[in-house]
Amino acid sequence: MAERVWDRFLTEQDKGSLQHKEPKKIGFGQNPALLLIDLYRWVFGDKPEPLLEAIKTWPGSCGMAAWNALPYIQELLAKAREVDMPIIHVTGLDGVMLEHWSFRRDGGKRAAMTKEQLERMRRKFDIVDAVKPRPGETVLKKSSPSAFWGTPLVGHLNFLGIDTIIACGESTSGCVRASVVDGATNRMRMIVAEECVFDRHEACHAINLFDMNQKYADVLPLDEILAYLDAWRAERNRIGSNGNSSMEILRDLAVGEEFKGLR
Length: 263
Fold this sequence. Notes:
Blueprint: H1 12-18, E1 32-37, H2 41-44, H3 51-54, H4 64-83, E2 87-92, H5 103-106, H6 115-123, E3 138-142, H7 153-160, E4 164-170, H8 172-185, E5 189-198, H9 202-215, E6 218-220, H10 222-242, H11 248-252
Parallel strand pairs: 1-2, 1-4, 2-3, 4-5, 5-6
């Protein structure tokens, strides 16, 4: 089995316990959507910089972890647009006299900020140009870690008949994890694109991926997700051409869990 990003953080006891547990995938469903979480300026800054340098001007920066993940996120987003699946961007809600979830850590700081710092704060929740939403793509704003809490996301997904959410963005240990747990709570099939999520802290990133993969989601390599999306498009096109609703293409390609005819 290929080494996973979390392997080097596991203890011998952790590894031993896994030997007694048969891995079971959640699997893909029939109607996926792409959820891009918090890909805003606050975590990228204006240019690629090592973390310890970047946080001098952008305190919320994830440093090079953010910039290194960006090409993979762009590839996933491009494929989602190519196959014409629903795309949902989520960013922070600010400027509406509603406190952000982390206000107790941030409180009182703005009064002492310079003009330059205030300008950065104004732009903090702007989605970066590399993954900028296009017309027709949904954009939601949230004031809490989860993309579900206090937003119309569940209603939107239900309206579209979505059963599978492919998640990417940041931070792995924070808003991605919170959204994945809430997605599972709402009985969605949660898929996390491993190369397309990132965190400020390497250990937090790895162990949270491990834990989500154990409990709430399938954490999968990007290539496997892209293969599923190609197969999903082929099946959808075949249904459109002959009305056949079978899932033989996905079965033949062994994408996702063993087909059980379940939504």
